[in-house]
Amino acid sequence: MAERDEDKLGGEVARALHAAEGTAKAWGLFFEGAGEGWARCSMIVRDDMLNGHGAAHGGMIFSLADTAFAWACNSRNVKTVAQHAAITFLSPVMSGEKLTAEAREDAAAGRSGVYSVRVSGEDGRAVAIFQGVSRSVGGAVIE
Amino acid sequence: MAERDEDKLGGEVARALHAAEGTAKAWGLFFEGAGEGWARCSMIVRDDMLNGHGAAHGGMIFSLADTAFAWACNSRNVKTVAQHAAITFLSPVMSGEKLTAEAREDAAAGRSGVYSVRVSGEDGRAVAIFQGVSRSVGGAVIE
Amino acid sequence: MAERDEDKLGGEVARALHAAEGTAKAWGLFFEGAGEGWARCSMIVRDDMLNGHGAAHGGMIFSLADTAFAWACNSRNVKTVAQHAAITFLSPVMSGEKLTAEAREDAAAGRSGVYSVRVSGEDGRAVAIFQGVSRSVGGAVIE
Amino acid sequence: MAERDEDKLGGEVARALHAAEGTAKAWGLFFEGAGEGWARCSMIVRDDMLNGHGAAHGGMIFSLADTAFAWACNSRNVKTVAQHAAITFLSPVMSGEKLTAEAREDAAAGRSGVYSVRVSGEDGRAVAIFQGVSRSVGGAVIE
To answer: CA nearest A83: which of A61, A115, A106?
Structure first.
């Protein structure tokens, strides 16, 4: 099946953001796919991502979800930033587990957008559910 | 003025969590102070903490706030985890700026607690406001 | 197509809750449908639901969404309460417009569940996106 | 002690909003006080505010908090709307109890503001903690 132009653009924007992120290298972040209004990335939890109780730090789980959100809300090549985000933690994660975050657009109105992100463990269980509210600031992400 | 025993315990728990966190070293996190129901930590934003637009990644700002929240909600030496957290981003942050997060308890009821965290820039401006909901799972954090 | 037993039970629980709610009569709330993990209700915005700027009060939009969430999270006939909820307002609503809220389950783990609710206007536009976190407290809703 | 002009204006705006709200009469809402960046209102929970489990509907608790938030974020007489709000429910409420909501400003930056609202029961316990994000849309609330 031929890829839609909108999805091709979304994928290109996500790849450009991924390449420009200082955090992508720091976290060992994988690009898993992206299109118009959606994106998917993954990360393997390491010992330097653990909290004081020995489980994955909530900040790292949020960071993975926030990255998928950023790719999805910039996917139409209009520079867009996060204004608000919320996360519910459902299951602890240990070192060595691969986590995958998938963002999809719930609604868009004017310059605002609302996105849901599901962070899943290797066994498919829901690790966290994230909701992000974006605001377009204008200008293109890529030429 | 003599320190209250409850604040002394809160400080000890926070220092123990800080020492045990894999993320504390990874992020260059500073312990700034802690007591019963409150905690303060700081971090200097580095290039490997930037997003694809060249500003501090929202995930790192959240991570700093989430750490202050974790120290504050564990401060009575009862093991406590984050269940939900939300963040509103108010001002962009560039590489090199020192950010400080201060958590305080808004309310506690049964095993649940609600905490607010203000993340401030070097000039004192509000960079983000975070709200965390915690749940005590029982057991001591330190002996 | 034959209705699944789980959906039949969800519908019965929602109807029982609707009948027992003091608010259902006060708000003129309509039962639109319900099944396992989902529910739909609607309401016509009245003058006594307007805020000081003359538009639908955010509290009433939240209340509609929260009702769909309550029906959905109780749909397995285990008494369940809201622990946390968040809402993003996307479009103003005037007096006389019919709003519809549709809740669906995003994830469930142990006694916790996460639900999304979309509140739509008559023209189908997204008026608000709501996210609710539930906690089962045990006991049956209906005999 | 002489009242500050900013607080006098905040009080006048809140009183004007209260008088214009269709919901104020419907809910029996009391004006308790308001000034620059803060506001307080109260309400007695009635049978027509109960949910299907026989306790105060979360939507009504939210609505009370949202009203205090609206008064506080409009207190500088610049028309301001709610963009996002979150609430954590901490304690159930029965019919007949008087609830008080107090909003205060946590931070403001540009056209955005973040407010916390504590909803308390008659005995002073925390019933809910609310956080609201506002956006100024311009124009005056009162002449």
So the answer is: A115
Tell me: the pLDDT tens digits for A34-52?
A: 999 999 999 999 999 999 9
CA–CA distance, C83 with B112 (Å, rounded to integer): 10
The continuous run of DSSP H or E covering B88 comes out as: strand B80-89
pTM tops 0.90: yes
Following DSSP, what letter does each residue of A66-128 receive, concatenated? Answer: HHHHHHHHTTTSS-EEEEEEEEEE-S---TT-EEEEEEEEEEEETTEEEEEEEEE-TTS-EEE
Domains of chain A: 5-136 (3.10.129.10)
Identify the chains in contact with C, defined as 3+ C-beta pairs within 8 A.
A, B, D
Alpha carbons A53 and A56: distance in angstroms, whole number: 9
**Angstrom distance (rounded) from CA B126 to CA D85:** 18
ipTM of the predicted assembly exceeds 0.90:
yes
CA distance C80 to chain D (A): 9
- Chain D residues within an 8 Å CB radius of B90: 107, 109-110, 112, 114
Residues D46-84 have pLDDT tens digits of 999 999 999 999 999 999 999 999 999 999 999 999 999
Look at A129 and C106 and tell me if their CB atoms are within 8 Å.
yes
